[in-house]
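Q: For a teaching handout, I want to show students what a protein-ligand complex looks like in token form. Below are the inputs, and the small molecule is 4-fluoro-L-phenylalanine. Please produce the holo structure.
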Amino acid sequence: MGSDSGNVQKREQWGSRVGFILAAAGSAIGLGNIWRFPYLVGKNGGATFILVYLIITVLIGLPVMLAEFAIGRAAQKSPVAAFGALKVNPFWSVIGWMGTIAGGFLVLSYYNVIGGWTIRYMIASFTGLMDAAATADQSGAFFGSFIGKQAEVVLFQVVFMAVSMFIVLGGIGKGIERACKVMMPLLFIIVLVLIARSVTLPGAEAGLDFYLNPDWSKLEDPTLYLDALGQSFFSLSLGLGIMITYGSYLGKDERLPSASLWTAGLDTLIALLAGFAIFPAVFAMGFEPGAGVGLTFITLPAVFAKMPGGTYVSFLFFLLLFFAAVTSAMSLMEVATTFAIEKFSLRRSDAVWLMGIIIILLGGYSSLSLSGPPKITIMGKSKDFLDAVDYLCNNVFLPVGSLLACVFVGYVWLEPAKKELTSDGKFAFPWMGAWTWCVRVISPLAIIYIFYMGLAW
Ligand code: PFF
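A: Here is the structure, written as tokens, with 4-fluoro-L-phenylalanine included.
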């Protein structure tokens, strides 16, 4: 099944350089940029957090992304099979297994649930959300009542997952690349429209002030560094084999360093722009920026409800969130799909169905846990399933996956990696020395620090 004559399966490749970069940026740009980044900025003193985040992304995130691209392109295989193809000790396949299970199944299962909320909120923008959200209290009640309706949450989760499955069914070029080429430019335009609306509201300056003026006293708070490190890995889609998978569909003529710079640059740009769309509006309408996870689904609808044209602004905002979420969800789905194609020799369509159903069932668990059991108790503290999975992925799988990738590339596979980065000497890479330092020393030490600090459940 799925193999040509001569038993060699022809592996699909990205149609163009722009298509690949938009797909990688599509994976990176997600709920993390629009939902999580602004609330972390709100919580950690505005511009101070942004500064630390930028330094960490350049020194730690970017080198790890480059390492993942190199592994993927050299192996031309899924993360699970990649280490076999590189002919290294089979132990290293643990990176692929962990990434596939944590990313393809666990992260995706709850990502779908939140993706489903974006669809619900797009519709609700026209059907009562604005009336319901006249104040933050009522907006909170609307949210609470929505996540309490289990059948509805599950329904939207399934619809969201169906969209990702449909796109991944089309494969790399005709599915993921094509979808990203349409959705990513639209996403960019929507952010700009929202910024224009937000900064022209009377009173918007207070939001800009908050966003752009650093509060240096926050530098003394260790959680700021922890949040910035975790956010950088999550936002760049690192540690779960995504960039290995996307790199595996690349040819040798692609310059990996510039591809990773583009991907990380676009990701950071959208996160920063999301802040410009959100904070001026939040302050102009007299709300607090530090509402944490509720900033997107509770504070913002109340903000929209108070502004002129709020219904349309709300719809556009949740459409933006939907595009961001779906282009990330499809990258996670692709990891699970490539795994099933290679491991069980399935056709792509069978692999998508099989993996999709398993992920939907797991996501159903997350959906139900929002308003009742199942709960998970670890070290005496109880969390609902969605929070528990989110916690485990962000604090354990993501940093451990990234750490192993650094150690592998920095100490076991350094010379082949260097060759890969220059496409066998074809392109110059003047930052090779700095990159080597980052993957061997700086990134591993920083990751061990997050891992250790983040273990407080
Ligand atoms: N980078 C995505 C975001 O910022 O929302 C989320 C994500 C996708 C995390 C894929 C990890 C991953 F492997």
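A: Two things your students might notice: The chain has 19 helices and two strands. The radius of gyration is 21 Å.
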